[in-house]
Every structure is written in structure tokens, then in C-alpha cells.
Design goal:
Blueprint (H helix, E strand, L loop, with lengths): L1 H18 L8 H5 L13 H13 L3 H14 L4 H15 L2 H18 L3 H15 L5 H18 L2 H18 L6 H24 L3 H15 L6 H17 L3 H17 L3 H17 L3 H18 L9 H9 L4 H21 L1 H7 L5 H58 L5 H9 L11 H16 L10 H8 L3 H12 L3 H19 L8 H7 L5 H12 L3 H12 L3
Helix pairs in contact: 3-4, 4-5, 5-6, 6-7, 6-8, 7-8, 8-9, 8-10, 9-10, 10-11, 10-12, 11-12, 12-13, 12-14, 13-14, 14-15, 15-16, 16-17, 17-18, 17-19, 20-21, 22-23
């Protein structure tokens, strides 16, 4: 007996050990696999990334935690800096010199590419460069050099930037001669192409157009017909378009610039997009297509308003806009004058080296005085003109809309009356049309079943059972002695519509016929008309009447009364 009791005690424990199955946890590689090849800023990756981060935290695996924050930074567009800071914090506490350098670099890239805060970006790049000294990760070291060159280029230090890009180009080109893994080769090719693009831009800034052109052509040849480098190809197309503009090949310039724009916009690279818009505007101006030029320049202003950012290369677009609206539209002339002053302030803050050069092109104080004069002389005129324009526009707009609406309603009424005159809304004629032999179709119904449903459905229509509220396909099928599926098949194949459409057609055709043949129904409310044909809701009736007849019931009644001379 004692043995039996021991067995009872130990059996549950043994069973738990024997039969319980420990839930298998996914590895880091398995969690990461679904999003490894997702596009940058694809938010759909984040559920997997958060799972990756949670696993790393639970296991105190700091190297994986850093990787998780890096992945989150890559895919979560709205929280890039938050995850960049998290990755940097963990790297400073538990990471290597390379980890710290990479996180400072990532913060710099966010400041530069996404926020266009060049000074803050430069500070982060310098920190990244400091931590990268002595690193064995050559790819990373040259990536830091590349981004330092990017910021120096934008700040106007072209000669210093040139040294960075030449050094990086030489390194990346040499690596392409080695036997590399597919992913490594892609990274080095992309880096090499980006360096070529930057060299192309710098050569143009330094007025070495022949060298800029040759680099552009090289980059274009390397990226053409290669979907992996669509963005890089667009950058080279942009450069070729600018080159064509300087050579006065305006048609060629326009073609290249327009082809480059969609991919650049899709990548949300608003800085280079503004450059494309600027040279498109210059190209249009050269061809005396002023309206298109103005549209392009106004795109630059939209970018400026949205991102509070403008490149020194494109600020002259405001001069063209001011000149265009001078003596034509005082309000816009004043607006773009203010925008130019605002742009000048921003450039002076973000591009101090270039700012002094820009002031050679216009006198800021003279511009301010001109602005004040415009404001003083035109304020009263603008107020009066605005009142007249707005009020006139409102009245005219109302009249135009009202007239067009009345004309459209009248036309729809006439079309409906024509269809009624042709007998399409006479219930007897509708039923007779159903007696016509329909073409043979592939169906799950036997000929006998189809004929039986047809005869019963004709009786259903003749006796106007469709006016009953709340009827359903199932209730009608039951009444006809068949099932919902067969009834649905018959209506779809023989009537050419689904059940709901069929019922709506019967009810609306019925009430339309009544409105046309019996004037007493013209005095019914919409609710009463809906009730008469079996439709429960007023709005539903009105919508179905419009869908089928192309006119609202109230508009039909109004026109019918007018036609009959009924007040």
C-alpha cells in the first residue's frame, strides 16, 4: 500500500517532466531574418525588431541589443534619433571603440540627411572620427571620412572635402578588385558610386565642368540598367541634366532632370530635389516657358516651408519669383521678398563660409527697404483688392457651381425621361424582357431548375412582393421553394447582377414608374416613397435612386412638377 501511495505522489511529477514541452524560442538570426532585406524606413519591420530588442534585454546580450537599436533606427523613421541615442548609450557602457564610433556616425547621418542640421552633424562626425582612429574596420573608417567630406562640401569647404572623397574613392575602387562576398561587394560599390557623385558635384562647384561631366558619365554607365543603384543613377542623371543646362542643351537638360526627380522624391531627399527644381526652372526660363519656371521655383519654396531648409545653390529662385510678380501681384511679390530674407538668414546661420559670397549678389539692406516701401504703398490697395477679389470670387463661384449643378440635374432628368419613354421603367415591359431566351452559360443549375426558378421569380415580381420590408435572399429562396445558393446563381447569371442590386433595381424602377405615371406620388415625402417600395431608410432610398437613375429623388420630383406645371 505504501508503494502505491508513493506512486500516486511521484507520478504527476514524473509526468510533468516527461510530457511537458518547453516552448522553443527563436534565435536572434531567426527573428532578424524576416526584415533583413526590407527597405530603409519600412515600419513593417518594427514588430520583429522590438522582439529582437526584448530578447537581447532579457538575456543581457549587449552586442545584440546594440544591433537591435541599430535596426530600429534604420526602420522607424519617426524615432530615428531616439534609437540612435539608445544604441550610443549601450555602446558607451558595453561596446567597443568601433561600436561607439558607429553610433556617433549614425547620429551625424540623421542630423545631416534627415534634419539637415549640418553643424550638429559635423560635431557627431568628428566624434566618430576620433573613436575610429586605430580601428581595423577599414570600411567604417572610410565611411566616417566620407561623411566628414559631405558636411564640409555643404559648408563650402570644397578643397578639404575633395581630399576626403579622393581618398575614399581610391580605397573603395581598390576593394572592388578583391574577391568579396555579395553583400560586401554591394556595400563597396554603393560607397564608390556615392563618392563619384560627390566628386562630380565638387568639380562643378569649382567650375571644372569637363571633369564633372566625365565623372557623371562614368557614374551613369555604372548604374544604368542596375535596379540596385536606382537612387545613385538618379543623382548622376541630375548632374548630367545640370551639365546640359550649362551647355545650353535645354531639351536634353529638361529630359535628364525630369527623369532623375521621381526616385529622388521617393527617397525623400528634399535637398537634391530642390536642386533639380531649380535647374528645371532655369531651363524653362531659357526656353521662355515662364509659367513652368515659376511652378518649379515655387516647389523650392514649398520645400523651404516644410523643412525650414534651403541650399545656397537654389536661393536665387526667389529673385526670379520676385521679378515675375513685380507689378503683377503685390501680395506675392511681398511674400517672396520675405521668403528671400528668411532664406538669407538661414543660409547665414547654416553656411557661414558661403554667406559672405552670396551677399555679393544682392544688398540685404536695399532689399529690406524695398520690402518696406512695398508694404507701405500697397497695404490699403491690397486690403481693398482682397475684399473685392474674395467677395467676387465667392459670388461667382457660387453662381457657377449652382448653374453647373442645375444643368447636370436637368440633363440627367431628360435622360431618365427618355429611358422611361422607351418603356424601360414599365413593370410589364420589364417582366416581358425576362421572357426573352437568355444565352446559355456555364451554371451549376440544371435547365429544369433554372426554368422553375425563372417562373417563380416572375410571379414574385408580378405580385410585387419586393415591396415588403426586410426581405432577404434566404427568405425569398424559402418562399420560392429553392435555396439561397441556387437563387443567387440564377440572379447573377440570368439577371447579370447580385441579389442586392436586383432588389434595388426592382424597387427603384417601381417607384420611378409611379412618380412618372401618377402625379399624387409627386407630393409624397421621401420617407413615404421609400416606405412605398420597401426601403427602410430615407438616405438609403435617396442613394439607391441616384445610383440607378443618376438623379436625386428630390431633383426628379422638382423637374417632373415643373414639366407638368404643378406648383
Amino acid at each position: 500500500m505504501k508503494k502505491f501511495y508513493c506512486f500516486l505522489i511521484l507520478f504527476p511529477v514524473f509526468s510533468q517532466f516527461l510530457f511537458s514541452q518547453k516552448k522553443e524560442e527563436k534565435t536572434f538570426s531567426e527573428i532578424r531574418k524576416p526584415y533583413e532585406k526590407m527597405a530603409i524606413d519600412d515600419i513593417h519591420a518594427m514588430p520583429y525588431v522590438k522582439l529582437y530588442i526584448e530578447k537581447a534585454k532579457n538575456e543581457n546580450n549587449f552586442s545584440k541589443l546594440i544591433q537591435g537599436y541599430r535596426d530600429a533606427r534604420q526602420f522607424d523613421y519617426k524615432n530615428k534619433m531616439k534609437y540612435a541615442d539608445s544604441a550610443l548609450t549601450v555602446s558607451l557602457q558595453h561596446g567597443s571603440q568601433d561600436d561607439i564610433s558607429k553610433e556617433y556616425l549614425s547620429k551625424g547621418i540623421i542630423y545631416y540627411f534627415y534634419q539637415k542640421k549640418f553643424k550638429l552633424a559635423l560635431n557627431e562626425y568628428i566624434k566618430a572620427y576620433t573613436y575610429s582612429k586605430g580601428s581595423k574596420d577599414e570600411y567604417h573608417r572610410y565611411k566616417v571620412l566620407y561623411h566628414l567630406g559631405i558636411v564640409k562640401s555643404h559648408l563650402g569647404y570644397y578643397d578639404d572635402a575633395m581630399k576626403h572623397f579622393l581618398e575614399c574613392t581610391s580605397f573603395y575602387r581598390s576593394k572592388l578588385n578583391e574577391n568579396l562576398h555579395e553583400n560586401e561587394r554591394f556595400n563597396y560599390e554603393k560607397a564608390y558610386l556615392n563618392c563619384l557623385h560627390q566628386l562630380t558635384v565638387l568639380k562643378r562647384y569649382l567650375n571644372n565642368f569637363s571633369k564633372s561631366d566625365s565623372l557623371s558619365m562614368l557614374g551613369y554607365r555604372l548604374t544604368d540598367h542596375n535596379s540596385d543603384f536606382a537612387l545613385e543613377k538618379s543623382y548622376f542623371l541630375k548632374c548630367l541634366g545640370i551639365s546640359r543646362y550649362h551647355k545650353k542643351d535645354y531639351a536634353g537638360a529638361q529630359d535628364h532632370l525630369q527623369k532623375s526627380l521621381p526616385t529622388i522624391l521617393n527617397r525623400n531627399d528634399f535637398a537634391w530635389a530642390s536642386v533639380v527644381y531649380y535647374y528645371l526652372g532655369k531651363t524653362y526660363e531659357a526656353q521662355n516657358n515662364i509659367n513652368s519656371a515659376v511652378v518649379s521655383y515655387e516647389k523650392i519654396d514649398s520645400i523651404f516651408n516644410k523643412h525650414d531648409f534651403i541650399l545656397p545653390e537654389v536661393y536665387k529662385s526667389y529673385h526670379s519669383l520676385i521679378d515675375h510678380y513685380k507689378d503683377k501681384d503685390v501680395k506675392k511679390q511681398l511674400y517672396y521678398t520675405n521668403q528671400l530674407l528668411k532664406a538669407d538668414s538661414l543660409i547665414s546661420k547654416d553656411f557661414p563660409y558661403l554667406s559672405s559670397k552670396l551677399h555679393k549678389d544682392f544688398d540685404r539692406q536695399a532689399l529690406i527697404e524695398a520690402k518696406e516701401e512695398i508694404e507701405k504703398s500697397s497695404r490699403k490697395k491690397m486690403v481693398i483688392a482682397q475684399i473685392l477679389i474674395v467677395s467676387g470670387s465667392v459670388v461667382l463661384g457660387f453662381l457657377v457651381v449652382r448653374h453647373r449643378k442645375d444643368q447636370k440635374i436637368k440633363k440627367q432628368y431628360q435622360l431618365l425621361q427618355k429611358r422611361i419613354a422607351e418603356g424601360k421603367y414599365n413593370m410589364n415591359d420589364i417582366l416581358r424582357e425576362e421572357m426573352i431566351e437568355l444565352p446559355v452559360r456555364k451554371t451549376s443549375l440544371t435547365p429544369e431548375m433554372a426554368l422553375e426558378i425563372k417562373e417563380k421569380l416572375q410571379k414574385f415580381e408580378q405580385e410585387q412582393h419586393f415591396k415588403k420590408k426586410g426581405i432577404t435572399q434566404k427568405s425569398i429562396a424559402l418562399k420560392l421553394g429553392t435555396n439561397s445558393h441556387y437563387l443567387s446563381v440564377y440572379i447573377n447569371e440570368q439577371k447579370g447582377m447580385n441579389f442586392n442590386k436586383y432588389m434595388a433595381e426592382l424597387r427603384i424602377n417601381y417607384i420611378t414608374n409611379l412618380l412618372n405615371t401618377n402625379s399624387k406620388y409627386l407630393n409624397y415625402t421621401i420617407e413615404a416613397l421609400a416606405d412605398e417600395c420597401g426601403i427602410a431608410a430615407r438616405q438609403n432610398f435617396s442613394n439607391l435612386f441616384f445610383d440607378i437613375n443618376g438623379i436625386r429623388p428630390t431633383d426628379y420630383i422638382k423637374n417632373r412638377k415643373k414639366e407638368l406645371g404643378i406648383s
